[in-house]
Amino acid sequence: MRRHHRSVFALLAGLALLLTACGGGEGPSLAKEKTPGLANSPGVTTPARGDYIVEAAVPMLEVYDEPDAPTPSSEYENPWYYATDTQKKYPINSVFFSDDQKPGWVRVLLPVRPNGSTGWVKASDVRLVPSRYRIDVDLSDHELTVYDGDQVFLQDTVAIGKPSTPTPIGRFYLRILVKPPDPTTVYGPYAFGLSSHSDAFEEFNGGEAQVGIHGNNDASVLGQDVSSGCIRMDNDAISRLATALPLGTPVDVHA
Q1: Contact, 154 vs 146, CB < 8 A?
Q2: Rounded CA gap, 15 and 26, in Å?
Q3: Are 153 and 78 in contact (CB under 8 A)?
Q4: 121 closest CA partner among 140, 97, 137
Q5: CA–CA dist 16, 232 (Å, integer)
Q6: What is d(CA 132, CA 32) in angstroms, rounded to the nearest whole number?
Q7: What is the pLDDT of residues 191-249, one digit of tens each?
Q8: Could you list the residue range(s) of the whole structural domain that residue 65 is in?
Q9: Cis before residue 79, ω within 30 degrees of 0?
């Protein structure tokens, strides 16, 4: 059985190294912005269809390949801990995304390779809330659109991965939000870590090559293919998203 204690995103590992190289005394901190709360009790009855944010409600969340599997195939520690370059550890609730449920069970999108991996968790072990927002990233148009229900909440021109280090395509979700101590670096004022992994790297700067959506320190690159796989946004736009979007929000990336 695979046990997932903690995961370090490529962009966060790189951020920690960058801060060290620049002489920063403090590592990046978890952003404490307002986010919509999840349901108050585990095992919430849900309709058969729809998008839901899923938060673990037990210390160790067991994930099964199928609802009728005799034993779990993996476990996720709750909370998991993000460690900075200064060895500080920040607890983060284990959050997932779901678009399918069965009586007593919830299918969740997992933050592991290969991208798009899913598993089933017991409904009694999680809290669910309908996902109000969703993010659509059109790589061909270099355009990121955030929807609040059926309405456009925000639209922005973004930079994406180079041909040699492309931005992964698929459905993912927001898993962590970090606020760098220096907003003028390549990461800008905020960085969301996604559940996706790079298709070009197995590891990146000592991390697991997971990618994300973050700010930017050079507006001239927006609309271009310049990154190692991450999606770079205007700083005002990412700041707006940081105060509105809950972790677990789905992210659809397509060509």
Answers
A1: yes
A2: 12
A3: no
A4: 97
A5: 18
A6: 20
A7: 999 999 999 987 656 567 889 999 999 999 999 999 999 999 999 999 999 999 999 99
A8: 49-130
A9: yes
Tell me the DSSP string of 103-132. TTEEEEE-SSTTTT-EEEEEGGGEEEEE--
Q: What is the pTM of this model?
A: 0.85
Kindly give, in sequence order, each residue whose CB lies less than 8 Å from that of residue 188, ignoring residues fewer than 6 positions away: 180, 214, 215, 216, 217, 232, 233, 235, 238
Laid out side by side, the sheet with 95-102 consists of: 118-122, 105-109, 95-102, 49-56, 126-130
Whether 205 and 226 map to the same domain: the answer is yes
Helix, strand, coil distribution of the chain in percent, nearest 5: 10, 45, 45
Residues 6+ apart with CB under 8 A from 39: 127, 128, 129
Q: Which residues pair with 191 in a beta bridge?
A: 178, 214
> What CATH number is given to the structural domain containing 11?
2.40.440.10
For residues 179 and 29, the answer to whether their CB atoms sit within 8 Å is yes
